[in-house]
Amino acid sequence: MVLGRLKGNTGAHLSPPSGRLRTQAPRRITNKDRSRAVELYTSGLSLNAVAKELGVSRYVVTAAVEQAGVEFRDRYDHVAKGKEKP
Q: What digits encode the pLDDT tens for the residues 50-65?
């Protein structure tokens, strides 16, 4: 193993890269939370803001909104409000 050889040669303790550490298991979303996610998103909150509000990931919120058949807003819609899209 490369890390073992490096540790032996340098005396430094090296650990393998682990990426992000998960602090807790992802929370399962209830049907009530799905409805709330859609409600918050359609009221104007971003996917990230809805996720933070409900304590779930943005991906869970995206799936809930998509399953409800809601059309996603343009990512920069807040900047282009009142302007016609080409």
A: 999 999 999 999 999 9
